[in-house]
UniProtKB/TrEMBL annotation:
It comes from Salix suchowensis. InterPro entries: Citrate_synth-like_sm_a-sub, Citrate_synthase, Citrate_synthase_AS, Citrate_synthase_sf. Transmembrane segments: none annotated. The keyword Transferase applies. Keywords: Transferase. It comes from the Eukaryota. This is Citrate synthase. Belongs to the citrate synthase family. It holds the Pfam family Citrate_synt. The lineage of its organism: Eukaryota, Viridiplantae, Streptophyta, Embryophyta, Tracheophyta.
Length: 167
């Protein structure tokens, strides 16, 4: 329906939807609201509104935009030292580096690992994918990179995409 009919994009969307459906807000909020015997539509609306916040609806968009600033400032062949400097620049400005060091993760997110396998198979040389490194990348560390790579370049649409598929 969105005009993306390549087999790789279809494979990505199957992976993307499966991985992103596992979300605490998207699953727990409607159950909580429904437990008060609220109308099912109100329960669904509550879940969507909960996902609209920046901690659930925007991370993959923020990661993509941050990664693009790295490539813009450092070039497509960013060295580890340049990346390290850019990370410190971001942190010293009082901002977090999106998609990394999730508060509860002390190991790599297994949903990230599934996406990494996809990336190694289909876009191993993409400069934005090359930026995704430890510490402890989470599910959003490169999901936006994939969408952009396959032509869904309007990052503001990513939150809508997540809501549409139940994230």
């Amino acid at each position: 329906m969105m005009g993306f009919d390549s087999p790789q994009m279809q494979e990505l969307m199957r992976l993307y939807v499966t991985i992103h459906r596992i979300a605490k807000v998207g699953m727990s909020v409607p159950i909580l609201v429904a437990s008060a015997l609220s109308d099912p539509y109100l329960s669904f609306a509550a879940a969507l509104n909960g996902l609209a916040g920046p901690l659930h609806g925007l991370p993959n968009q923020e990661v993509l935009l941050w990664s693009k600033t790295v490539v813009e400032e450092c070039g497509e062949n960013t060295t580890t030292e340049q990346l390290k400097d850019h990370v410190w620049k971001t942190l010293n400005s009082g901002k977090a580096v999106p998609g990394f060091g999730h508060g509860v993760l002390r190991k790599t997110d297994p949903r990230y690992t599934c996406q990494r396998e996809f990336a190694l198979k289909h876009l191993p040389n993409d400069p934005l994918f090359q930026l995704v490194k430890n510490p402890w990348p989470d599910v959003d560390a490169h999901s936006g990179v994939f969408l952009s790579y396959y032509g869904l370049t309007e990052a503001r649409y990513y939150t809508v995409l997540l809501k549409r598929f139940g994230y």
